[in-house]
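Researcher: Can you fold this with iron/sulfur cluster in place?
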Amino acid sequence: MINRISEQELQKQKEYAARVRAAVQTAAFERGGPYKFCVVTYGCQQNEADSERLAGMLFDMGYEKADSEEDADIILVNTCAVREHAEKRALSVTGQYKHLKEKNPRLMIGVCGCMVSQEHRLDDIKFRYPYVDFAFGTSYLWQLPSIIYDRMKKKKRLFLLDTEDDGNIAEDLPVLRQCSYRAWLSVMYGCNNFCTYCVVPHVRGRERSRYKEDIIKEAKELVADGVKDITLLGQNVNSYGRGLYDDYGFPELLRDINEIDGDFTIRFMTSHPKDATKKLIDTMACCEKIAPQLHLPLQAGSDRVLQRMNRHYTLDSYKELVSYAREKIPGITLTSDIMVGFPGETEEDFEQTLKALTDIKYDMVYSFIYSRRKNTPAAEYEDQIPEDVKGERFRRMLEVQSDIGLKINEGYIGKTVRVLCDGESKNDPDTLSGRTDGGKNICFTGKCPAGEYTQVKVTAARPFVLMGEEI
Ligand code: SF4
């Protein structure tokens, strides 16, 4: 049963927030300077969106945004569990905070997110990081005010393991967005697909959709605030509305958001190929605000491997959907997730993945090496692939895909594209960067302010980025 957090429970958290705010403001007055927060985020767009709520709640509790951890009075590490590497990075960074606590014993350190939604990692924090004040799993996010208040008042460290398998939905939490013109908008949470390599269903709970009225209200508020680019988020957006509405799903939600007045673009991720339909593609084709962009994780090109991954589609059914999308939305930007080194993956299976790349021709691929995840079925498979073989296949896959990406991007040379500018490029202060309607990265010379649309003529291309000049 999905737990929608009640008004009373949310009101109680607002009262805790008021008490924390009073304590923080008193302490700030005594010290003669504001108390500051820092939220460090690992992982996916959903974690980015969660961190904006954590920051919103901290700001609401009287903390100001710190420039860095060194400058903070409370640090929250919002973790990811999708790969071993992500966990190791979060643990190593948390390890580095030991000296900050020695310098400032009043510093509060919290760890949250998917990694500590796993009991063994929550115990790691509890026993191996004695200077960490609290840790809580993803379903406790909305209780941050009472967690901080209890830590302040009871002087006891807090460790909260997710118990609600189904997960919950908390509406109207304070939010502090990273960007004034691009925004994440979660439409559903959790996942019921249980791909054999994936830890997400174990740390994010069961699929649960927000009420369409709440989503449309939030979208209208974003557009009224001047947001130009809205990305709808969900582990599997195509199962939106399942178990909540009989005749209202993701295509219907897209149509309703498309009806909102304003000059803005709608994007969405992530689509599971088994639930992505021709109806979705038709909706994308007829709704002018929906970006010509589809992220459709294939994961592997071998049906045998897809079956062992519990993905519930075949390469042929996947390719049929891709052809339909390209027919209905010419020039659509197509991206995917590809994993190499899944247990039992033979050289022949891997060759099928390379062939799928050359046949489908993605604009870009997010590529991953299989990472053994505790409590997932694939972690127990005997036929694990040696690390060196995984590494070699990963290198070969990148080579094939970067050639494909370059050829596709070279096809844009001489064309003019609409770009939403993100300001100065991180790599070159003399150029600007932004994204095309199709979501492609582009660096260009020009004067366009961040957050504004402009027209750019493409003059050169690389596998992962276009280059151009503003016209
Ligand atoms: S669809 Fe599969 S890979 Fe994606 S979050 Fe769900 S279980 Fe993980």
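Model: Folded with iron/sulfur cluster in place. The mean pLDDT is 96.
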